[in-house]
Task: structure prediction
Amino acid sequence: MTPVTTPASCAARAALPPEGRAPTSFPRGASSVPRTDTTVIGGLGATAPPAAGSGPATRTAPAGHDDASGDPLDRLGDWGPVGTAAGLFQLVPVRVERDLPLLSRWMNDPAVAAFWELSGPRAVTADHLRDQLAGDGRSVPCVGVLDGTPMSYWEIYRADLDPLARHYPARLHDTGIHLLIGPPGDRGRGLGGTLVRAVADLVLDRRPAAARVIAEPDLRNTPSITAFLSAGFRFAAEVDLPAKRAALMVRDRSLRHLL
Result:
């Protein structure tokens, strides 16, 4: 997965409620799951999503937007919630002023920083987020909200339009996933695999042109690779990326009901 780097201002902290309560703008489920603070599954290190104005990466098919609006990710903000074994889950596109304090705190957790490399002042995380938000929509940073509680960070991106496409045989509309799980209490209990499967299913359901979902966790990140395997991804290859040696993980539409 790819690292995130963008800190926020102290003023943004006031926009988030105390831990354990969700902002009213986040979806709420029927039940609640106790959670603590925040940790990691994926990790950066491959290639950061291109900022606005950067050219498309090399790919095996011409670039193309998906719908009449020209949105490369088919209106991700409208995908809505999905039920999982862990509760009601939704990807909520990031708003820097609301989410930066929380995301920066997660990025400074040593377990997260080891792979995402976005620790430090909030400006580091803020710059990373704003690079994506100022782009053309080919990478969308999101907060993962489970039963009303923000508990993970995700980047859903067009892998075929990303610099990653220079390092593997990309196909048109390949869609990539980066993620981290924030609260330490949510790690190491299988939650990552459950949510990765749910998000991969969302991509395949909401993006009919996408035949595959892609991930590239660091080869050293065994928990991340295990989560993707448990979510129906297959190990496709080892790839050398600018900042890491990665495991290329693929979930194929044609195999989604078999794995």
